[in-house]
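Intended use. Records like the one below are meant for learning the mapping from a protein sequence to its folded structure. Do not use them to infer anything beyond what is encoded.
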Amino acid sequence: MNPTNEEPGVYHAYLLHLWRSEYQGRRQWRASLESPHTVERQLFFNLEQLFAFLSERCESQPPYEDWRPR
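Structure written out for the chain above:
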């Protein structure tokens, strides 16, 4: 896959950080995503939030067959 040949917004890249922490006596996964392009960082208090964010980003994109390479 060559992201430079794709339409804008069809390709997303993130640096993913995962770690476990304890909250109210329970250990749970935390996560953050950092954009290598903007250095913007998103924090997630559980994996469900992370998956919801990624799903929303992917669902907001046009279907694969709707875009045309340049």
